[in-house]
Amino acid sequence: MKRLITYMFILALFFLLVACVSSNNSTSNEEANDSQNDTPTETEQEETQSDEEEPVELTYWYWADNSEYSNLMQDIITEFNETNDKGITVIGEEYPWDGGGYSETLFTAAMGGGGPDVAAFKLTSTPLFSANNLLANLDGYIDSWEDKDDIEENLYDIMKTASGTDSLYVMPWNTQVLYMYYRPSIFEEAGIEVPSTYEELLAAIEQTTLDTNGDGNTDVYGFGMRGATGGQEPWGSFIHARGGDFEDMTSEEAIQGMQDFIDIYENGYAPPSATTDGFNEIIANFKSGRTAMTVHHTGSSAEMVETFGDDVSAFAFPEGIGQWTSMGDTNNVIFESTEHKEAAFEWVSYLATGKGQEDWTIATGNVPVSTRVQEMDHFQNDEFMKASIEGVPFAGILPIKDTTTEWISTVWPNTTASALLGDITAEEAMQQLHESLHEE
């Protein structure tokens, strides 16, 4: 009996020991499993890495002036998509410019939450978009951008001025810069050189006003003045050359610039039709030989060369007390709503200083914003491009205000015509122009 009890005691003790060992092994295995779960498996690492490098798609809105430019943009997009090493795919969506309706369509879409990540843009729209907090602030991206200094500082200043802040919300892309066309043969006949100062320009306008056949009538007018809509751009160069500006058009300097403009007309150095001459008229007058000089940009250079061959050239509007020329613009913006701002900056910087800048400006004839591209032979061997590039550091735009459109289309041409015809003085004209633009 005692043997049986002893045997049962030993058997119970054995099962107890087995249970303890099993429990310890179970706990050890659970801890090991927990430890393994804390360290990602190879598969999990691959999945995490895949998430970090997940391809990014950007929607880009733009307009194109013709089918050639439309195809060009799609080619640029394709090349960017194939060559960038960051997994970025740009999807280009073209919209018509529609006389500026593009900007309204873009604004409506952005306000409704259905706009693109990135879009081609005009500076005149900046106040509206920035006031509604639609545009991404680019300061941080540009400050750390290796190509920052490849763009003329003046262009950044223009972008800031457009927003009314000290920050950048618009990325430069391409420009049109006004310069002075002139006829070398007429300059030679007048015995003068290309003017290098504002005073020399005023003298050249007088000296190239010629009676070529001695009949007492003017056959060539020194300056093809634009008095109709659009004429405020070349006119602005005269105002600034005297030291004036658009912020205070009632200053003595600004009034003197207007007086110079009036004197050119009153002295017969511009065609009698100048008060109503628009773009078509100043180009036709220059091409017919009726004027020795007129102001425009590279958009008309091909037809000038076709008309005159080597007997046409250009120079930047010369410096006086101040210096200014008008700049047309097409830029890009990144929307605050996009979740891919870094990828978006890769795209707009490619258009600003990369291969996209080269391809677009070479094909369209627009002036590059990249100094590297400006230095390419294609641009340096083109005298009209060189005159444009020379004007970039002092180029500018009119103040962007609620009144600007009406001022350009109606107030400036009507007021200037009255001044040219002697109905009002230069001082009265500048007072009216200032009050209308600045609503005083």
Automatic annotation (TrEMBL):
Residue ranges with Acidic residues bias: 41-55
Keywords, ordered alphabetically: Signal, Transport
Database matches in InterPro entries: Bact_solute-bd_prot1, SBP
Signal is among the record's keywords: yes
UniProt biased composition (Low complexity): 26-40
Chain spans, region Disordered: 26-55
Protein name in UniProt: Extracellular solute-binding protein
Similarity comment: family membership: Belongs to the bacterial solute-binding protein 1 family.
Keyword Cytoplasm: no
Source organism per UniProt: Gracilibacillus salitolerans
Pfam families: SBP_bac_8
Signal peptide: 1-19
